Amino acid sequence: MYENTGKIFRYKILCDIQPGPVSARAYGVSFMGNSTGGQSRWTFLTNHARVLVEIARNPEVRVREIAATIGITERSAQGIVTDLREAGYLNPVRVGRRNHYSINADRRFRHHTEADMPVRVLIDMFTDRDDPGTPG
After folding, report:
1. Gap between the Cα atoms of 15 and 1, Å rounded
2. Could you tell me the pTM of the whole model?
3. Domains located in the chain, CATH noted
4. Segment-wise mean pLDDT, segments of 10 residues, the chain, 136 residues
């Protein structure tokens, strides 16, 4: 789903692609992300997807640990956890002073082009590996 905040559009789950050869800025649209040295920086997974995967790897993970692992601020990580909870992807359960999360992995992707796929596909792709730093 796209979120319109002025002239900035964010695709929150799977892709955060920068403008290519045909600039979207010509149409009054800006894309999130930084560019350095003339090259755009983009990734296939958004921070929302990364947070969901980290929670799938460790349902008892702290927001501070999520932030450190994926390289965002604690405040950003907390905001993403809130987004995912409000959208029905996460169910936090308070255990003592900590949250333990359960994921609704059967919930579908938000964008219409992936709406027939459950987020379980993304989670399985990145959690069914022996070592997160190596393929396969």
Report:
1. 11
2. 0.66
3. 2-40 (no CATH), 47-127 (1.10.10.10)
4. 46 41 39 55 91 96 96 97 97 93 95 92 85 54
